[in-house]
Amino acid sequence: MNGNLLVVDLEFEARLKRNEPMSRHTSWHVGGPADAFFSPRDRADLLAFLVSLPEGTPLFWLGLGSNLLVRDGGIRGVVIDTTGLARLERVNDTVITCEAGVLCARIARQCVKWGIGPAEFLAGIPGTLGGALAMNAGAFGGETWPRVRSVDICDARGVDRRRDAREYTFGYRHIVPPAAHEYFLAATLEFEPRPGITDEAMKEMLAKRKETQPIGEWSCGSTFTNPPGDHAARLIEAAGLKGHRVGGIQVSPKHANFLVNTGEATAADVEALVAYIQLQVREKFDVVLTPEFRTAGEA
Ligand SMILES: Cc1cc2nc3c(=O)[nH]c(=O)nc-3n(C[C@H](O)[C@H](O)[C@H](O)COP(=O)(O)OP(=O)(O)OC[C@H]3O[C@@H](n4cnc5c(N)ncnc54)[C@H](O)[C@@H]3O)c2cc1C
To answer: Where are the alpha helices (DSSP H) in 213-288?
Structure first.
């Protein structure tokens, strides 16, 4: 179904944005319009909205768009902006519940305050818990899923339930869910006691990032996953591509695995540069680089 033809309850109609440019919602700042864009206020509001949708309405779940390439033709159907799912609570000494729209940096900071960890690795990941669950985000040796005990999910019809973390398999920057078309609402995470912990380690990690990565520029972080036993950045640099440009997108001169929008890039520019890097690295080193980011929408 084309989301432009989508008819929703009057109650929701006023809150639905039509033809919302996705370049406003991705850290690459590229991407065409979403037919419809909905920002639920909380979990109940989200489930009520989903129940009200005509069956078969295509849905796209959005966190902070920090690992997402939306193509120039935009997204058909409804984009669900999850950032309103923002509850973060402590269940007991070491267990917390966290809704999908909570920012990773907030989890890291709050865990330090509660004296539990390790959650510091989440500090520099500029996304939501939902995105971190979908990607098994990680940094500095830490990863999201080893901390997960259960997740609350829902389907496209707004039916929610709890799943045990053991129903999922996970690996480096990916997960295999037990069923398709399910979306994260929240998770229960378990950490370890860290009495006396300060925010020193977190600050160090953030400083290290700033030193080596083009933080603050428009990118999606690491573009490619690291191939076994090597680093994508090393291969791209060795292929002579640091600083290489296609239209408005450039291989960062600071970190070769970051592609930076210098201001006017289109998604087509990003796709062209990604393909060019893959070709060059394969020809020179016989290594196939796999994109880490997700692609959505139409060309
Ligand atoms: C400067 C920079 C540094 C970064 N550093 C790191 C790093 O160190 N480590 C790392 O792992 N990543 C890193 N990233 C990438 C990115 O921040 C992470 O992958 C993050 O987890 C994505 O979260 P998000 O909320 O932005 O997700 P989005 O980009 O909005 O979405 C990513 C995917 O998750 C899906 N998704 C989002 N929310 C849900 C939900 N509730 N239910 C189901 N699916 C959902 C989306 O549909 C999409 O497929 C970096 C990015 C930037 C820009």
So the answer is: 232-238, 267-285
Residue whose tokens read 């098994």: 136
pLDDT digits (tens, 9 = 90+) for 37-75: 999 999 999 999 999 999 999 999 999 999 999 999 999
Segment 85-96, tens digit of pLDDT: 999 999 999 999
Nearest CA to ligand 1 atom 1: 221
d(CA 59, CA 36): 10
SS3 label, residue 223: coil
* Closest approach atom of ligand 1 to CA 62: 30
How far is residue 87's CA from residue 89's CA, in Å, rounded to a whole number? 7
Helices (H), 142-266: 200-212, 232-238
What is the 3-state secondary structure of 13-67?
HCCCEEEEEHHHHCCCCCCCEEEEEECCCCHHHHHHHHHHCCCCCCEEEECCCCC
